[in-house]
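FAQ

Q: What does a record look like?
A: Structure on top, sequence underneath. For example:
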């Protein structure tokens, strides 16, 4: 056989994914024709696909010497370096590709993906858009753009892009999965479930879709379905400790010796990522809690939170926003009311996490079917966060502030013509009480109060994934301090405007306390207010979603007492810590 025969055989091998034989035959070609460009180029592609990056780079570099102006060679050199995590080198080759061939759509996409990996979203969007302009059906560039729009909270644009992708490629499971996450975030759980089920129709073994479905079933109180899907996910990702952790909340009996041994074995693996290590440590803390070794429990919890924040910090609202920006802004008397909202009667439930807000909202919602339940709408905070983080000037005399916020509630279907009562339990709203008082003069303000140590430890024992301040004891204490200061200042200027619900009193005397609460809200108390857990439309995406599905029970106020010794050093600085 001559060189041409080996070359044709190699092409056939490559076409049939018989890469080992293809490489052997390409080598035979190159032995007699060392400058055979296609043999070198194709060998580079095969080595890249097999993750043999050094061999791939050698092939592409030899090919480039033969054809110095071949843009595809440089693009694939960039890919080989990118796949090794060498982003600086890959960027050089992508830019060289574009210099040679300015209309090279893949190189523009690849540059965009580099910027996306570095969290440079504006540049990533720019290059994804160029790639799409050059090739309107570029699936990966469209997908990347959809992710960016979602990240920027440009939800309608994100939905439009993913739907466009599905029209081009109806079997693009990634788009269905992301549409699921978008609709889940929007609170449209039925639509979200439909999209996750479409993913599973295409890829029955997709662990992410199983996990996402399980999370929705938990929010809906369908624990059996949730357990089934968590277990399905674990068939394919058995060492994903985030899934194990969430399953353990529904099936505590899985916290056994075998799991503990498996966790410790996996923690020795150098390739385990920080997020997975974080959940492994959360699980280990549960063993120490059972043994009443509280010092070790705190140690594992501290490790868990540090690993989590190291892993996710770039995705979260900066800690500075919560601990410095918000506490220092004075909204008092800045906003002048220019919009008549006297027909709107919202009930704002706020306070510290893990203080009974989910319970209180569901008690109120059980009073009347006309009450629209907002859960954690995050409307007011999101409005100001966007301006604060971008250093935009806030004009408090701007009528649009009020209109924008009212329209945001309308968009979430919380303000309707036939109903003017809705709840919003965005806990951080205590920062905005002066604004709320002006925008919604008929608002009822309910402060959820619990013993500070109980709230603190309940936060630290759980993983409040979206709150950057909640993963460090010092930051938690600072946030608590801002809360107590803001509440005191507002109460001094506006006596009797806030109704305090004390969690400990509520669980010990539910009927008396709920009657007083409903009376403050101007609502009728009914027996079913204490049977809130029977509501068919009860949806809870908070950490309290399991507790809120059972009757009020007398929580032991002493169960956090053993932890006080770890916080004695803070009592001098924080007088409220008792």
């Amino acid at each position: 056989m001559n060189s041409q025969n080996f070359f044709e055989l190699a092409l056939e091998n490559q076409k049939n994914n018989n890469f080992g034989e293809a490489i052997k035959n390409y080598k035979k070609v190159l032995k007699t024709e060392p400058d055979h460009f296609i043999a070198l180029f194709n060998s580079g592609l095969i080595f890249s696909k097999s993750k043999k990056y050094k061999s791939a780079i050698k092939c592409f570099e030899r090919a480039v010497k033969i054809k110095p102006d071949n843009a595809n060679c440089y693009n694939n050199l960039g890919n080989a370096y990118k796949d090794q995590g060498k982003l600086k080198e890959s960027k050089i080759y992508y830019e060289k590709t574009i210099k040679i061939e300015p209309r090279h759509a893949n190189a523009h996409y690849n540059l965009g993906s580099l910027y996306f990996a570095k969290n440079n979203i504006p540049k990533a969007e720019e290059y994804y858009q160029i790639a799409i302009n050059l090739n309107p059906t570029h699936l990966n560039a469209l997908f990347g753009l959809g992710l960016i729009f979602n990240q920027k909270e440009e939800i309608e644009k994100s939905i439009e892009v993913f739907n466009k992708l599905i029209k081009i490629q109806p079997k693009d499971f990634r788009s269905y999965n992301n549409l699921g996450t978008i609709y889940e975030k929007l609170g449209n759980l039925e639509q979200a479930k439909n999209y996750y089920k479409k993913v599973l129709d295409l890829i029955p073994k997709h662990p992410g879709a199983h996990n996402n479905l399980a999370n929705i079933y938990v929010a809906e109180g369908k624990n059996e379905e949730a357990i089934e899907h968590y277990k399905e996910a674990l068939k394919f990702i058995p060492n994903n400790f985030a899934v194990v952790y969430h399953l353990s909340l529904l099936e505590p009996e899985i916290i056994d010796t075998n799991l503990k041994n498996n966790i410790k074995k996996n923690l020795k693996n150098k390739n385990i990522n920080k997020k997975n290590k974080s959940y492994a440590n959360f699980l280990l803390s549960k063993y120490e809690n059972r043994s009443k070794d509280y010092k070790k429990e705190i140690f594992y919890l501290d490790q868990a939170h540090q690993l989590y924040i190291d892993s996710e910090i770039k995705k979260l609202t900066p800690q500075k926003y919560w601990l410095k920006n918000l506490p220092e802004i004075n909204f008092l008397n800045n906003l002048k009311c220019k919009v008549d909202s006297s027909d709107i009667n919202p009930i704002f439930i706020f306070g510290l996490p893990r203080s009974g807000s989910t319970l209180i909202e569901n008690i109120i919602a059980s009073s009347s079917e006309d009450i629209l339940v907002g859960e954690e709408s995050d409307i007011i905070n999101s409005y100001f966060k966007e301006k604060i983080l971008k250093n935009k000037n806030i004009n408090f005399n701007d009528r649009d502030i009020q209109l924008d916020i009212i329209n945001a509630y309308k968009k979430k279907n919380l303000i309707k013509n036939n109903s003017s009562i809705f709840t919003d339990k965005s806990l951080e709203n205590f920062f905005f009480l002066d604004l709320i008082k002006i925008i919604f003069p008929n608002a009822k303000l309910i402060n959820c109060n619990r013993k500070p140590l109980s709230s603190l430890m309940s936060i630290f024992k759980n993983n409040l994934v979206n709150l950057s301040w909640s993963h460090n004891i010092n930051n938690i204490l600072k946030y608590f301090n801002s809360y107590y200061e803001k509440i005191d200042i507002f109460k001094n200027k506006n006596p009797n405007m806030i109704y305090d619900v004390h969690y400990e009193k509520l669980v010990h005397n539910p009927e008396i306390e709920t009657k007083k609460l409903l009376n403050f809200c101007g609502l009728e108390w009914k027996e079913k207010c204490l049977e809130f857990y029977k509501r068919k439309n009860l949806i809870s995406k908070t950490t309290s979603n399991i507790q809120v599905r059972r009757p009020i029970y007398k929580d032991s106020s002493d169960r956090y007492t053993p932890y006080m010794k770890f916080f004695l050093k803070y009592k001098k600085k924080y007088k409220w810590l008792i």
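Q: Is there anything notable about this one?
A: The radius of gyration is 28 Å.
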